[in-house]
Design brief:
The protein has about 140 residues and is mostly helical. It is built from five helices and no strands. The protein is globular.
């Protein structure tokens, strides 16, 4: 149940972040917006680390260095979401984003990519994905 709460909270934060970043983008460029978002995020993260973190980075030496690209993906996410919202709308961007995340996540689970536990893709998940895609299409009808 707590996992659902955190997922819901993340969804709220993602929507709010995207609106904030898109509004910043109206005044500066998209890469400037991306840099500002990550700089402020870094400062906040360092503050949280100072007060709540265990500050143990030694285990990083043993991880697959590919996983460090998460920060690059974060920057690309901010950039592409800001561009998408600027060219379409918050609702369309978030709808496509959620459906894409679901499909890619299901494939990552199914194949056990990036060291994740393998979770078999079944017909129910495929039908659910198709229904979500249909939902995005219906949501956009005028």
């Amino acid at each position: 149940m707590i996992g659902i709460f955190f997922a819901f909270t993340a969804g709220v934060f993602i929507a709010m972040q995207n609106v904030c970043n898109t509004n910043i983008n109206k005044f500066v460029g998209t890469w400037e917006t991306t840099s500002i978002a990550h700089l402020v995020g870094l400062l906040f993260s360092l503050l949280m680390l100072l007060f709540f973190g265990n500050r143990n980075f030694a285990p990083l030496a043993g991880i697959n260095k590919l996983y460090l690209f998460g920060g690059v993906f974060g920057a690309l996410i901010v950039y592409t979401v800001v561009k998408s919202i600027s060219l379409s709308s918050v609702a369309l961007t978030m709808s496509i984003l959620v459906v894409t995340q679901l499909i890619i996540s299901a494939l990552i689970d199914h194949f056990g990519l990036f060291g994740m536990e393998q979770v078999t893709l079944n017909p129910t998940k495929i039908v659910g994905s198709i229904i979500m895609i249909a939902g995005v299409i219906v949501f956009q009808l005028k």
